[in-house]
Each structure stands twice: as structure tokens, then as C-alpha cells.
Specification:
Elements: E1 2-7, H1 13-25, E2 30-36, H2 56-72, E3 75-82, E4 87-88, E5 98-107, E6 113-115, E7 124-132, E8 144-146, E9 153-155, E10 164-173, E11 188-189, H3 195-211, E12 220-223, E13 226-227, H4 237-245, H5 264-293, E14 297-300, E15 304-305, E16 318-322, H6 335-346, E17 352-355, H7 368-379, E18 385-392, H8 421-434, E19 439-440, E20 444-447, H9 450-456, H10 486-490, H11 494-500, E21 505-508, H12 510-516, E22 522-526, H13 533-544, E23 548-552, H14 565-580, E24 587-590, H15 596-603, E25 608-611, E26 617-624, E27 627-634, E28 640-646, E29 652-656, E30 663-665, E31 672-676, E32 681-687, E33 699-706, E34 711-715, E35 722-724, E36 742-751, E37 761-765, E38 770-771, E39 787-788, E40 791-792, E41 794-799, E42 802-807, E43 813-815, E44 823-832, H16 836-840, H17 848-854, E45 872-873, E46 878-884
Parallel strand pairs: 1-2, 1-18, 2-3, 3-12, 12-14, 13-15, 14-16, 16-17, 17-18, 20-21, 20-22, 22-23, 23-24
Antiparallel strand pairs: 4-11, 5-10, 6-9, 7-8, 7-10, 19-26, 25-28, 26-27, 27-32, 28-31, 29-30, 29-32, 33-46, 34-35, 34-36, 36-44, 37-43, 37-46, 38-39, 40-45, 41-42, 41-44
Helix pairs in contact: 1-2, 3-5, 4-5, 5-9, 7-8, 11-15, 12-13, 13-14
Length: 886
């Protein structure tokens, strides 16, 4: 699928129909309709105009798009809002995203009163405290409460001989506005802890959107990643905290902004857990119920702000991750594996991911090989539904290469290389389908230390701080997020240790263990300190029944929460001794996480290993009723050859080619030699039942003929073709420096009858790619394939006017055998580059008047100082004749 951005909205039915038909022809299976900011001003002379979000005109076009998609057999999802997060003009300030505003007001020595901070609509003063202070330090351990003032000044009982600070704790609002809203949709982000706010939104927006679908609701409604930054409060939080945690938070409020003494972390934990429960019960659950009532599914990116957990994914039908992609994404904590783990735990077989979000920026820079390289990283983490980010709606009036989102790829028909999209989507479809078969077979569960993360939460402390330039709340100092906090708790070593030892893993958390148990062979506790005693007892039961439990770095020692903390912590420490210092043979303590992989492989037979060890090769394993299916991917820019050992006991094995759908048997399932080109992947299937026979002896190269010279090359819009005696990059020709599009290379080759007789084959080979150095900062978002193709960037190969194949990924070779004939054969290679060359030769759009009309809702990223990129066929081209080995 693709995320289909409607800018404005300003869509017209003819363009909607055209784009849907383009998607269908390209092998794209559906759309998620997302509405964003306007990209052009109304023009009465041409009739172009933007209409308001959820206006009657908007709904008419939405209805048409849904009907056309149905006619074409395409799935339709729709985002329950515009921009992100949810909100808009229908959200009053009393339902806007909440925040704890803490004003720190100096009280110089001898002073007897301070001014009370001014309160705005939607705010309420909850408590005041005074504490000793200096220029560099505020001693909250000595903070004492003061009465809430009734007027504009707060009086002290007596002046202090030293400087103090008065803290005002105010139930406030972040002021965050919907980001990138469409016309008529600007407004406050809603309070994710307020059930009335989401009910208001679902009525004002959700009901209107779904009315366009009539009796055929969308396949799913979509909730984007939760980015309600700094939202850490709601007006009735104190009452809810008292009800849920059993004590009054009010006298302990200073703990949320600083060191309040030994109970600080416990109090913060209880605050964080309360926020999570409110987000679950007042945002996710109502939205899921609403979707069910409207006979559709809820697809949700359940991570971010507010601090939802892995187990919060229980309140949706289709979990979704996101491609904040780096080359090592699959070997570190990611929201993608978080979503896949939730799907595995809670029985959702289809797990999607927002893919290519930051792929090889800027817009139009990404290549098909880039797209495959990132998609494979998602597959390796358990994803089996891709939602490409994305497809920009673009009218003819936008020219070429059309509209694009400010900071994402543009994978539409305006891309010069779009003609090879069917080959790419065919690959993605086959792997996605294969990864939905059977059940996940991951061995290891890695416990996410939610309780430790909650205990680390802190609210920002304000000191006469103005609003941000965007009109929102300054979130500095506020870290109320589980998933974005987890990397520093897990560290960078533990996931690679597990993968390198030959095991794949899922995440799990305490709430999931309490709900469904531990459906894995191994549970790893990564330096966990706080853990609920009920959960810990379930872990002990798991170990006593043969489950392997491994603790690293430290043993759990602290009970989460403030009430009965000392007594319960003592019990936790006793349980740790029982489990790890007692007689449970399957419980192990590994102080140094660097030893985890080696130890793990001693206790459990690895699922997949390579000889020699090749950490760049990833795998995912699905267990089918009829056998075992493995997906392997080379995530590096260099070829790898290795001996693969699989734990599967199937007596027969075969290779499934995800590009052709063909299978071929393997002679010895116990001894599998694998050779993978850069970014190459394949499926390996094991079964006890007989499978396809192994192919005959491998073919050997008989003859290699260099055909790199004397090509006739024609360019779209160029009257005269170019005679290329030697292959050169298009920008080397001054007339083609800023050319983006297609070039057709033509050449006649002579092939003898002996070269195409039975048992022989003919292929065209464009050479190998050139590895590109990896970035010095591997965590930087902007994933790409670090390999320059010998064909920049994609090509279709025709022989005697028959399409023989596509060239965009290693090996850069196409089999011509079914199409060649003895004697003269006409070769035609249609090559396409990216749109960057054209964009490098034109001025950036001037959005001055658009910003004046709608506000500066976006700024194009990475579009300055573009330079033309190498384009065309750049390597040595050979015809290769092969025959049976002798």
C-alpha cells in the first residue's frame, strides 16, 4: 500500500481516477488517504481551489476515490484526521492537550510575597511549594507546601533570611497545534487523556469521513504515531491518581520536577503508569470501539507521546511500526520490532509498517534498490504489510516532477524510474505473503523495563518561559515516552548479542506476561531493576517449568511504585535470590551482556547460523503446518558466501525466488551453501514431504562478449539521438546535465545458433555495483542502499521488442534466452534516472504567498544545493553465454 497524500485538499475526480489506475498498474494494492497542507493558492482563472477538510466537496471526492478503488480492487484506509496528531478547530482549549506547568518564581531573602502566575483559559492552579534556592540549585528535598492563594499575590507567613523559590503547579495545556493541517483544519491537538476529547473528534471528523463511504466502510481507519509532545497531564489527573494508586499525589508534586528525596523515582513511576492507563482507557479503547461500531478495523502506530506501552497495542486490530530507518535498525530497538512483537503476542497475524519515511532524502532521491534495502529490514523484524510513505497527489498544473511532501519520498508515476515499479512491488508482495504464512517462530523474548522507564519520567520546569515559535509548549526537560526512552535502558549490545548467536527475538512487557504468559523458549531481563511481584512470580513459574530466564547486568531488586515500597522491594530481592541463586537450573545471571550470545547458544540450539559468522545476514523464521520457512537478507553492500545451518529438521528443502515466484530444490538440507549479492534476499523452505527436485549441475560460463561500445541513445524531447562510442554519464553532456527521464539505448547483436541450443543460455550483464562508504554516524536517519548501480538508476531490457526483464538490483543481469534467435537480435535498454537532475537545474518553488495565506506549515528539506547525479549505463556491458558444466 501507499500513503496517498491529498494536499489542500484540492483533489479532482479525473486526477484521482488517473492516479488510482497508475497504482493498480504498478502492482500497488491499496491506499491510505491522508490529507495535508495546501501546496498551491486558489486561482479563479484556472478553477484551481482548495476546499476545507471534511467539507461536502471533500467528502464528494473521497466518495469517488473509494468507489474507484473498489472498482479496481484496491484496499482503502483513511486517516482519522488531518496532519498529526489528532485535533482541529472543533477542539476547545478545555479539551486541548494537557501539560503540567510548573512555574519557578524567585523569592529573594527577606521577601514576604510573590506574584501569582497569570492563568489562561484551560488552566488551574493546583498547589504551591516553597524551597531553599541558590543561583545553581533548588533544594526540593526541603520543599514545603503553601496555601493556594486567593488573589494575585502569594503571601509568606514570614520572610526567609536566604533566597527561596516558590513553585506553582498548574494544570495547563501544551498549546500544541495540529502539524501540517489541511485547509480549514488548524486547531489544538486534543488531550489524549480525556475521553470527551476523542469522542468530540470522532464525531466531528470520524463520522464525517466515514459518511463518504456509505455502506462500504474503509478496510481500516488509521491513527498515526503519537506525537503529542510534552503532554503529561489532564485536569482530573490528581483524582484519577488517588483512585488508581491509593494516595494523594499533591504533596509529592515536586518529585515530578526534581530530586524530592528517596521516594522520587517511585512517585514518578506511579505518575507515568497513571498516564499510560489513561491513554489506554480514554484514547485507544474508545477509538477501537468506535471503529468496531462502524464495521471497520483500527490500524494504529501505538508508540510515542503519551507513554503508551507495548501492551497498549491490545486496543487495535492492525499494529503498525515506522521506518525511522538506519542501516542497523533491525539490530537495535525500533518501533518496527515493537509493533511486530505486539502482533505476535496478541494474535494479530498482519503487522504493517510505515516504510521509506526517511529514505535517501530529499524527495525523489530514493531508488528502487533503496526501497528494497529498507523493506528487507522491516521484513527481518516481523513486518508483513508495507505502507509506503508515500504517494503525493499531484495535478497536471504542478508540472514535473510534481508535488511532494516536505520531508519524505515520492514514489509515484512522476518518478522517472516508475516503469520498474511492477518488478519491485511483485517482490514485496511475495515476501509479504510468505511472511504471513504459519506462525512466528522467534525463540527469545526481551523484557522491556517499563517500570524503570516510568520511574525516570520528569516534567519540565518552567521559569518565565515563553511559548515556542510554533505556538506550542516547550517540551524540553519532559521525557514522558516509553519507546523513545527504552534505548538507553536496553543499551546497544543486547539485541546484536541475541541475533549474532543465531536467534530472533520479540519484545514483551510485564502487562503482556500478566495477560498471556511467556510464549517463548527464553526470557531475557536486560538490567531490570523494578518489576511487579506478580509478574516476577510468573517468570519464576516459567523457569520452573523449563523456560530459560537470563538476567543481565543486575538482578531485579526494587518494587515499582510508592505504596508499600520497602516491604515489596524486600520480597523482590527474595524472589531474585530464589530464581538466580537457588535451584532453578534454567535461570542464569550473565553480568556482562557481551557474554550473553555465547551463553545463550550453550543453553539452546541456535535457529540459524552462518559459517563464517556473518552478522550482516539477517533472518526471520515462520513455522508452517507443512514445514518451516526462513527469509534471509544480506543487509550489506558487499556479497557474502557462507555455509548456512538451520535448526529445521525437515528432510527436504528448496529455495523460493521472491522475484519470479519459482522454486528449486536443494540437494542436501543439512549442508546449504548460500551466496548473496549486496542487498540480495531469498526464502528457504523446509518440509518432511518431498519438494521440487534439485536442478542439474550448475551452468558454467562459456563465453563473455563485451558489447559496451557503439550504442545509439535517444532521449525524450531530444530531436537527434546520441551515438555513444563509449558509455558515459548523461550529465557529462552539457545539453543533458539537468535531464531527468528516460533514455533508450539500442544495439544489434549477433548470436550464433550454437549459443542458444538446448542446455545453453544467453544473458546481458551490466557488471557489479560499487560500494559506497557507510555514514560515520550509523544512527542518522536517512536509510539508503550503500551501493551505486552500474545502471543509474533502473532499466527495462527488451530483445526483439519483447520485455526480457528489469535491472535495478544485484545481480545486474537479465536472462535473454527465451527471446533471442540465431543471427541478428535487436537490444533495447530503456534507462531512467531520478528527478534530482531536473530539480538541480531549476529554482526552488517560492511559497511566500502560500505561507502568507495559510502560515508556514512546512519547509522543504534537503532541496538546497542539489547537484546532478550520474545517470545512464555506466559499467561494462557483456553478453554471457553459459552451458552445462563438464
Amino acid at each position: 500500500m501507499v500513503r496517498w497524500w491529498w494536499f489542500g485538499p484540492a483533489a479532482t475526480n479525473p486526477e484521482l481516477q488517473s492516479e488510482l489506475e497508475q497504482m493498480k498498474a504498478a502492482g500497488i494494492g491499496g491506499v491510505e488517504i491522508a490529507t495535508l497542507y495546501a501546496l498551491a493558492l486558489d486561482d479563479p482563472a484556472t478553477g484551481f481551489h482548495n476546499y476545507n477538510f471534511v467539507s461536502d466537496e471533500h467528502l464528494d471526492h473521497l466518495r469517488f476515490a473509494a468507489e474507484e478503488a473498489g472498482r479496481l480492487g484496491l484496499r482503502v484506509d483513511i486517516t482519522l484526521g488531518t496532519g498529526w496528531p489528532f485535533g482541529g478547530p472543533h477542539i476547545p482549549v478545555t479539551q486541548a492537550a494537557g501539560a503540567l506547568r510548573v512555574e519557578s518564581v524567585p523569592a529573594p531573602a527577606g521577601s514576604t510575597s510573590v506574584a501569582v502566575p497569570s492563568l489562561e483559559a484551560g488552566e488551574k492552579l493546583m498547589a504551591t511549594f516553597v524551597a531553599p534556592a541558590s543561583i545553581a540549585h533548588l533544594d526540593l528535598k526541603q520543599a514545603r507546601p503553601l496555601p493556594i492563594p486567593s488573589g494575585s499575590r502569594l503571601d509568606f507567613p514570614a520572610g526567609s533570611a536566604t533566597e527561596q523559590r516558590v513553585l506553582f503547579f498548574i494544570s495547563s495545556r501544551t498549546g500544541m497545534m495540529v502539524k501540517r493541517p489541511s485547509a480549514g483544519a488548524a486547531g489544538f491537538v486534543l488531550d489524549h487523556y480525556d475521553s470527551q476529547a476523542i469522542a468530540n473528534h470522532l464525531h466531528a471528523v470520524g463520522d464525517r469521513l466515514l459518511s463518504a463511504f456509505g455502506d462500504h466502510p474503509p478496510y481500516a481507519v488509521f491513527s498515526d504515531s503519537l506525537e503529542d509532545y510534552a503532554s503529561n497531564w489532564t485536569p482530573d489527573l490528581l483524582a484519577e491518581f488517588q483512585r488508581r494508586r491509593g494516595y494523594d499525589l499533591t504533596p509529592h508534586l515536586p518529585a515530578l520536577v526534581g530530586d524530592f528525596g528517596p521516594d522520587t523515582a517511585a512517585i514518578r513511576h506511579d505518575w507515568g503508569r497513571t498516564l499510560t492507563e489513561l491513554a489506554n482507557e480514554r484514547f485507544l479503547q474508545p477509538m477501537h470501539s468506535w471503529a468496531q461500531e462502524h464495521h471497520t478495523l483500527l490500524r494504529s502506530q501505538t508508540y510515542g507521546f503519551p507513554p503508551v506501552t507495548l501492551s497498549s497495542n491490545r486496543y487495535e486490530d492492525l499494529p503498525e511500526g515506522e521506518g525511522k530507518a538506519t542501516i542497523n535498525m533491525w539490530r537495535q530497538f525500533s518501533d518496527t520490532r515493537w509493533a511486530a512483537s505486539a502482533g505476535h503476542l496478541f494474535g494479530h497475524n498482519v503487522v504493517s509498517s510505515e516504510t521509506w519515511t526517511w529514505l535517501h532524502s530529499p524527495s525523489f532521491r530514493a531508488t528502487p534498490l533503496d526501497m528494497k534495502a529498507e523493506a528487507d529490514l522491516h521484513f527481518l523484524q516481523g513486518i508483513n504489510q508495507l505502507v509506503g510513505h508515500g504517494w503525493p497527489y499531484s495535478p497536471d498544473s504542478a508540472g514535473e516532477p510534481g508535488w511532494r511532501m516536505y520531508a519524505a519520498g515520492a514514489f509515484d508515476a512522476h518518478n522517472p524510474w516508475f516503469d520498474v515499479m511492477p518488478d519491485l512491488t511483485g517482490y514485496l508482495q511475495r515476501v509479504s505473503y510468505a511472511m504471513r504464512q504459519g506462525k512466528p517462530a522467534n525463540d527469545v523474548a526481551l523484557l522491556l523495563p517499563n517500570d524503570d522507564v516510568w520511574a525516570s519520567f520528569v516534567a519540565g520546569l518552567q521559569k518565565n518561559r515563553p511559548p515556542t515559535s510554533a505556538g506550542g509548549f516547550d517540551e524540553s526537560g519532559s521525557n514522558v515516552t516509553i519507546d523513545e526512552s527504552l534505548p538507553r535502558f536496553l543499551g546497544r549490545d543486547i539485541i546484536p548479542q541475541i541475533l549474532n548467536a543465531g536467534f530472533n527475538l520479540d519484545f514483551i512487557d510485564a502487562d503482556a506476561i500478566d495477560a498471556i504468559g511467556i510464549p517463548y523458549k527464553v526470557l531475557v531481563l536486560p538490567g531490570v531493576d523494578r518489576i511487579p511481584s506478580e509478574t516476577y512470580q510468573k517468570i519464576i513459574d516459567f523457569a520452573q517449568h523449563g523456560g530459560i530466564v537470563i538476567a543481565t547486568r543486575r538482578l531485579p531488586a526494587t518494587a515499582p511504585g510508592f505504596e508499600n515500597a520497602a516491604e515489596t522491594s524486600s520480597h523482590i530481592q527474595t524472589l531474585s535470590q530464589t530464581l538466580f541463586r537457588g535451584q532453578v537450573a534454567t535461570a542464569h545471571f550473565v553480568p556482562d551482556e557481551h557474554d550473553l550470545g555465547a551463553q545463550l547458544a550453550q543453553w539452546l540450539h541456535p535457529d540459524f547460523t552462518t559459517t563464517p559468522p556473518t552478522p550482516e545476514i539477517g533472518f526471520i523464521h515462520r513455522r508452517l503446518e507443512s514445514g518451516d520457512l526462513y527469509f534471509l537478507a544480506n543487509t550489506s553492500n558487499r556479497p557474502h558466501s557462507f555455509q548456512a545451518t538451520f535448526r529445521s529438521s525437515g528432510g527436504h528443502a528448496e529455495i523460493w525466488d521472491p522475484f519470479t515466484g519459482k522454486s528449486s530444490g536443494l540437494p542436501d538440507p543439512a549442508q546449504i551453501k548460500v551466496e548473496l549479492q549486496p542487498y540480495e534476499s531469498r526464502l528457504v523452505y523446509f518440509s518432511s514431504a518431498p519438494l521440487s527436485p534439485a536442478p542439474a549441475m550448475p551452468r558454467a560460463e562459456d563465453k563473455r562478449t563485451d558489447i559496451s561500445t557503439d550504442w545509439n541513445v535517444s532521449f525524450e524531447g531530444q530531436v537527434q539521438p546520441v551515438e555513444m562510442h563509449t558509455l558515459t554519464s548523461w550529465p557529462d553532456n552539457p545539453h543533458l546535465r539537468y535531464y531527468s527521464g528516460h533514455a533508450t539505448y539500442r544495439k544489434t547483436v549477433d548470436i550464433s545458433a550454437a549459443d542458444i541450443r538446448s542446455g545453453h543460455s544467453v544473458a546481458i550483464d551490466f557488471g557489479e555495483g560499487t560500494p559506497v562508504p557507510f555514514p560515520t554516524s550509523p544512527t542518522e536517519f536517512n536509510m539508503r542502499a550503500y551501493l551505486d548501480s552500474p545502471v543509474r538508476e533502473a532499466a527495462q531490457v527488451y530483445v526483439n521488442d519483447k520485455l526480457a526483464g528489469y535491472v535495478w538490483h544485484p545481480p545486474f543481469r537479465v536472462d535473454l534466452s527465451p527471446f533471442v534467435k540465431p543471427g541478428q537480435n535487436e537490444l533495447r535498454v530503456v534507462v531512467a534516472n531520478t528527478a534530482i537532475n531536473e530539480l538541480a537545474g531549476v529554482a526552488l518553488p517560492n511559497y511566500r504567498l502560500l505561507y502568507a495565506r495559510y502560515g508556514m506549515l512546512f519547509q522543504p528539506q534537503g532541496m538546497q544545493d542539489l547537484q546532478p547525479l550520474p545517470s545512464g549505463i555506466l559499467g561494462q556491458v557483456n553478453l554471457i553465454q553459459t552451458g552445462p558444466s563438464h
